[in-house]
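User:
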Amino acid sequence: MQLVVGGAYSGKRKFVNREFPDCQWLSAYENQSLDQWKLKFKTAGLPVVIEGWEVWIREEREKAGELESVRNHFESILSDMHQFEKQTCQPIILIMLEMGRGVVPMAKGDRAWRDLSGWILQAAADKAESVHYCWHGLSRKLK
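Assistant: Predicted structure:
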């Protein structure tokens, strides 16, 4: 797996489109469900880009409530993706939003959302073969 992380409008999509010009997208911003990620692997060989994690995390948090169960849910999905990528040899590129740059939200629910997003991003970085950080349209390989 490849992970591309950065703030909003930092150049993540531009980086992915440049590095992986022919790919399939699964996007929460297009109202697509993360549950459908395996369906994107119908076209053999094309990389699959998965974005909008913060949207799916917020939705799951609203349904499940408990932080630990939401965290476990997404870590399980990441593990499944990692295994599936190994089996199919079809690249998966995760685009994740870096939230807050250390700024702690005032509202308890927003803090929980930021914390969950950070934990899930760490799990993705751990499983990723490479991690790129985008900022102001520039990218730096971290891993």
